[in-house]
User: Fold this.
Amino acid sequence: MNTKRQKSMGRLRRHPNVILHTLRTLPALERAIADFHGRRETIALVPTMGALHDGHLSLVRIAKRRADRVIVSIFVNPTQFAANEDLGTYPRTFAADLEALRKLNIDLVWAPAVTTMYPSGFATQIVPGGPAKAGLEDTFRPHFFAGVATVVAKLLIQCEPDIAMFGEKDYQQLKVVTQLACDLGLRTRIVGAPTVREKDGLALSSRNAYLSPGEREAAPALYRVLRECAGAIAAGKPSAGALRQGREAIVDAGFVLDYLEARNAETLAPLESIKGEPIRLLVAARIGTTRLIDNVAV
Assistant:
């Protein structure tokens, strides 16, 4: 097939009236990946658990600018939920997700069943270290990053992407996945994208749907406190004092605080020296029954 015809077929596949291809079996996915590779096209993967919002869609738009083909995976991963967490009530909006992705004119959706990802007899788990043992999310959700690392490794192997997009809102997860790809020698480059926020600063999250009107009104306090702490530290105020005031402000806003910490932005290790060290502030707190996380750079 000549180059002009290849490009023409690529344009036809991206026409907005073309039906969005949703694949559910590994053989079908393998054929699609082989087709992309045969055309020497680059692939971007956007892993999601569905319930798509503008934060997810921003990742898709970035992916479209960086690769010839875009795959979005939709899979609610049971291994990253503990028994007391919200797997059963996690929002599932598959039809709406597909419509949103169709409008963005992506190439295909990978939506495997649980039995496809974890067939009978599945017995292997990746247990990450490094940023996965930073004393942040791992303290409160000790099961979480093993589940994330295992499913992300499977998705990267299955989809063979050149790049994979992850949002900075889940900053520790971004660092864990980046370390995973490096340590396992995977060909995929992990790309972080800025957090997308509501006008009042609340980071977009599928779990925002759980907030009552009163909780939703109070929720932007997390971002406000993060910015105030970051500004104080950047201005030379001791981090311990800035964080202490920030923790008090979060509790006063009606949250039950899990953590508010200043960490090395690359390793997530505790700070050794403020000067010359990249700093990331990370927070997790509950309001009502909803747990929110956020972070900002200093």
Q: What stands out?
A: The beta strands are 21-23, 43-48, 69-74, 108-110, 163-167, 189-193, 256-264, 279-287, 290-297.
